[in-house]
Design a protein that fits this description.
Elements lengths: L3 E5 L11 E8 L4 E14 L2 H16 L6 E3 L1 E5 L5 E7 L5 E3 H17 L4 E11 L2 E11 L16 H10 L3 E4 L8 H15 L11 E3 L7 E5 L16 H8 L2 H8 L5 E7 L2 E10 L4 H5 L4 E3 L2
Parallel strand pairs: 11-15
Antiparallel strand pairs: 1-5, 2-3, 3-8, 4-7, 5-6, 6-9, 8-9, 10-13, 11-12, 12-14, 13-14
Length: 301
Amino acid sequence: MYHTNAVSRAPTLRNGSDTLRLNALATVGNRDHLSINVIVHDNTDVNPFRLLLNAVDALAIIGLQDIRGRLPASRFQLTKYPSVVIDVDPAAAATDVMNLAASLCVYHGVSDVLRRRIYKEVTIICEFRMGSVKEMLGVSLRTISPDPDKAMSVSASNGTESTMAVSDALRPHFFYVHDAEALDYTDTMVTLMYSIMHLSRQSKTAVMPRTYTDPGTHWDACIIFPGDGPRPPRGPPPYLEFRWVIGTLRKVPDFMIQQRRFAELGIHFRIDDVYLGSAILKKGKPDRAVALNGNFTRATI
């Protein structure tokens, strides 16, 4: 499997080559607001597929940490696809940023850029407000010429040790469902990004409810979690905790790339040989009957 190197770095927000500014306001909760200013640098292309792979992994690394914890200026870079990087930089006066703000800025910034079909280097300036808390940060999506002779060391301060611990414990089973419909890779990746971003707001050791995640109108995929695994107090642990779900969703792109097929996917969440529950990544939106049956609740951020 490919891995992301998450390394602490000095903030390097760019300026001077701005060619286009796009503004967006995302409502991410009853009291949370994220304003986004996208600065497009038209001199360098960014591969959208590699960007999406990196974004899924970066969101999982951030999401497996305490969401109220702090992230220093960091670079996310896949060792298998090192030419596209995601740099997260706190505002000039700050040394770090809340993990929640970083997660929301990466998701909303990347998905907005792809929805607009902007395949150029960009800098995403974010202002996150949650009650009296205000965070300023920048996320840069860049193409670089990686030096194969310079290996990047993984920064423990970015929480990658706990991320690897979750990854090592998982033994998921992926399979294409019967008569699986083909999925667009962008729809697939954005749905994974959205799901990881949303689930990361919960306690990592809480039990996953019966629910579904739907990234919204622009994306033609969703994930349904039927809640069919052991649940307290009816069954013994381990249970399907949020951390196991996030860690497993992180592995989906690698499976689909190996199979050379993006299509509707069944997911069995497992720790070693213990079955924890299932999910299905499907084309389109959840059927209304499915969504309403069994007290399904839509996950919205």
